[in-house]
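Example 5.3 — HAD family hydrolase
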Amino acid sequence: MALKAVIFDMDGVLIDSEKFWTQAELDVFSSYGVQVTEDLAAQTKYMTTQEVTEFWYERFPWENFDASDLEHKVVTRVIEMIQAKDCTMSGVQEFIKNLKTKEYKIGLATNAPLRVAHVVLEKLQVRELFDTIHSSEFETQGKPHPAVYLTSAKNLGVSPEHCIAIEDSHSGLKAAKEAGMQTVIFTNNDESIDSNLADFKILDFNTVFLPVFGE
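Solution (predicted structure tokens):
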């Protein structure tokens, strides 16, 4: 199938920000008496913000629970760190620009809230290169459910079999595969990442040589 669109995950692909989410959970939920341990935090790594909030409340319930307020606090803290830290994946901006010169449609499909996605694309100065930006917050389920990818493909006007997704996790790869897309695992030179569901592999964006992209 001819490739017509490339859809990016965000955290762990465009920016190295997953540690920010862990820190935000620690900062916000600890103030409510939640014991945010490393083992428990690892379980929330690929959840939506709503799922994360419910995860901690179910284990450490507290009075006056307000999910929307907590989600807002977590997201705000993450945005503060994204804006303050050097977290851009090396070479990713040029990689995106190169894809655009080859006339691929470009999309973003993330479990993170849309307002985080806009901050990230502005930070990378690539917002105008994206044809669609979509978040699982507008779906009934986040990744590994394929909904966010199916909607992204629909927004691009491209059938899923003509799309390829760039992910950094098994959960994301599963979502893209179930949507009927080809998949690329971005490892950021971490060979421990599970790539069993990936059709292709990118170690880093500075040295991408994949025939599927016309390289």
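Remark. The domain at 17-84 is CATH 1.10.150.240 (DNA polymerase; domain 1).
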